[in-house]
Design brief:
globular
Length: 474
C-alpha cells in the first residue's frame, strides 16, 4: 500500500482537507516562516545571557549539538507527517503507535504546554512594555491576550500572516546583528572596533572557562530555546500542500540553527568577551551597548516583545487544534469538535484563551515573579512531545520495514539510530534538570500532572470504553 492509497482509504486527498473539517489556508510562505520563527524566541534573545555567563564560549557547542538533536527530531516528525499528515499530529501518532493512553497524555500535555507558554510569553510581553510606558503589567497582558484571541478567531490565514510578520521581525533583527558584528570585526568601526576579535572565543579562560560540567548544565536552557520548533507539525491539517511544503520547511532546520544560534553567538562573543555578559540581560542588548549603539536597547526590546507575542499567538492556534483532536478521538468534551464557518475550533480556542487569562491575574498579584512562576514546567512538558515523536517514528519505521505500513516519502536519515540518540540526549537533559535546583520544580510538577491524567483516563475509560480506544482517522 502506498501513501496515496492510505490517503484515499482514510478520506481522500490530504491536500484538500484530510477529512478533518479544517481549511487549507496556510501557504508555503507562511509555513516556512512559522518553521523559522518556531526556532527563534525569548530563549535566544533573553535566556542566552544566563547561559553565556554560565558556560562561556562553549555555549556555541551546546547549541550546535542540541541543534543537531532537534534536526533528528524534526526529520522523525517529517517521516510521520508524510506517512499521514493530520492536525494534532503528536497525539494522533502516539495513539496509533504507542496506545490510546499515550495519545491522551500527549494531547493534553502538549495543550498544557502551550497554555503555560502562553501565560509565560504574555507575561514577558507585558514586562517589555514597561520599557516605554509606566503602566501596570496586567493591563498589557489583558490587551495582548484579547487581541491575539480575536485574531485567531477570524481565519487560519490571518494567524499565518501574523506569524509571518512576527518571524520576519525576529529574522531581520538577528541577521542585522550578525552583519553589524561582521562589519566591526573586519572594518573596526564603533566603540568595540579596537577590541573585537575572534580570539575572545578562547582567550578569556579558554573555550570551556567553567568546565564541561557547566556547559552540560546549560543544556536545559538551550533546549528551552528550541521549544515550539515542532509547531510546524500541528499545521499539517491546514497546509495547502503538506507533502511538498512541510519537508522543505523541516529541511531548513540545520541552516536556521547554524545562522540564528551558532552564527549569532559566534559573532556576538567575538565582539564582546563572554565575561561581560550578565544573567537576566539580553546578550543582544549588551552587545549593542558595548558597540556604543544606545538605540540598540530599544530595538532589541521591540524584537523580544515580538518574539513573546509570536509565541503566545502560536499557543492560541495550537491549543484549539489539540483539544479538537482529543475530542474527535473521544478523549475530550465533544464541544471541542465544533468549527466555525472559517474552520476555527471556537470552543477549544476560547477555553484555552480563558485559561491564559490566569496570566493576567498572576501579573496583577505578583508582577515581579510572574515569569518565574510558570516557565519551569514548560520545558519538561514540551520535551514530552519530542519524546513521543521519536518513539512513534521508531515504531512506525519498524512496521514499515515489515511491510505492515506504507513507507514514508520523507525518511529520516540514519533512523532509527538517530532517534535513539536523540532520546538519550533528552534523557541527559532531564537528568541535568534534576541536578539544577532552579529547574527541579518542573520535575516535581510532572508526576502530579501524570497522576491527574492517569485518573482522568481511567474515568474516561469506565464511562466510554469505545471512546478511549484508538480509531485511525485521516
Amino acid at each position: 500500500m502506498t501513501s496515496a492509497q492510505v490517503d484515499q482509504e482514510h478520506g481522500g486527498d490530504a491536500s484538500v482537507g484530510g477529512g478533518e473539517g479544517y481549511q487549507r489556508g496556510l501557504g508555503a510562505r507562511q509555513i516556512q516562516m512559522i518553521a523559522i520563527g518556531g526556532a527563534i524566541g525569548t530563549g535566544l534573545f533573553l535566556g542566552a545571557g544566563k547561559a553565556i555567563a554560565k558556560a562561556g564560549p562553549s555555549l556555541i557547542l551546546a547549541y550546535a549539538i542540541a541543534g543537531l538533536v532537534i534536526f533528528f527530531i524534526m526529520r522523525a516528525l517529517g517521516e510521520l507527517l508524510m506517512y499521514r499528515p493530520v492536525s494534532g499530529s503528536f497525539s494522533e501518532y502516539a495513539r496509533e503507535f504507542v496506545g490510546p493512553f499515550a495519545g491522551f497524555v500527549t494531547g493534553w500535555t502538549y495543550w498544557l504546554f502551550w497554555v503555560v507558554t502562553g501565560i509565560t510569553e504574555v507575561t514577558a510581553a507585558a514586562t517589555y512594555m514597561t520599557y516605554w510606558w509606566d503602566i501596570p503589567q496586567w493591563i498589557s497582558a489583558l490587551v495582548f491576550t484579547v487581541v491575539l484571541y480575536g485574531a485567531n478567531l477570524i481565519s487560519v490565514k490571518l494567524f499565518g500572516e501574523i506569524e509571518f510578520w512576527f518571524s520576519m521581525v525576529k529574522v531581520t533583527a538577528i541577521i542585522g546583528m550578525i552583519l553589524i558584528c561582521a562589519g566591526i570585526l573586519t572594518l573596526g568601526f564603533s566603540d568595540a572596533g579596537d577590541t573585537a576579535t575572534v580570539a575572545h572565543l578562547w582567550n578569556q579562560g579558554g573555550f570551556f572557562p567553567n568546565g564541561i560540567g557547566s556547559t552540560l548544565m546549560t543544556l536545559q536552557i538551550v533546549m528551552f530555546a528550541f521549544l515550539a520548533v515542532e509547531l510546524v507539525g500541528v499545521t499539517a491539517g491546514e497546509s495547502k500542500d503538506p507533502k511538498t511544503v512541510l519537508p522543505k520547511a523541516i529541511n531548513t532546520v540545520p541552516w536556521r540553527i547554524a545562522v540564528f544560534y551558532v552564527g549569532a553567538l559566534i559573532m556576538i562573543l567575538s565582539v564582546v568577551p563572554w565575561t561581560e555578559f550578565q544573567p537576566g540581560v539580553s546578550p543582544f542588548v549588551a552587545a549593542f551597548e558595548k558597540m556604543g549603539l544606545g538605540v540598540g536597547a530599544a530595538i532589541v526590546n521591540f524584537v523580544v516583545l515580538t518574539a513573546a507575542l509570536s509565541s503566545c499567538n502560536s499557543g492560541m492556534y495550537s491549543t484549539g487544534r489539540m483539544l479538537r483532536d482529543l475530542a474527535l478521538n473521544g478523549q475530550g468534551p465533544k464541544a471541542f469538535t465544533r468549527l466555525t464557518r472559517s474552520g476555527i475550533p471556537l470552543v477549544g480556542t476560547t477555553f484555552s484563551a480563558a485559561l491564559m487569562l490566569v496570566g493576567v491575574w498572576i501579573n496583577y498579584i505578583a508582577p515581579g515573579k510572574a515569569f518565574e512562576y510558570v516557565v519551569s514546567f514548560a520545558t519538561i512538558s514540551g520535551m514530552w512531545a519530542w519524546i513521543m515523536i521519536l518513539v512513534c517514528q521508531i515504531r512506525y519505521r519498524a512496521k514499515a520495514n515489515r511491510g505492515e505500513l506504507p513507507q514514508s516519502s520523507f525518511k529520516a536519515p540514519g533512523a532509527p539510530w538517530t532517534s535513539w540518540f536523540a532520546l538519550a540526549f533528552i534523557g541527559m537533559v532531564i537528568v541535568m534538570m534534576g541536578i539544577d535546583e532552579g529547574a527541579r520544580v518542573s520535575l516535581y510538577c510532572a508526576p502530579l500532572w501524570g497522576l491527574l491524567l492517569g485518573v482522568s483516563y481511567l474515568v474516561l475509560k469506565s464511562r466510554d470504553p469505545e471512546g478511549a480506544a484508538f480509531k485511525k482517522r485521516p
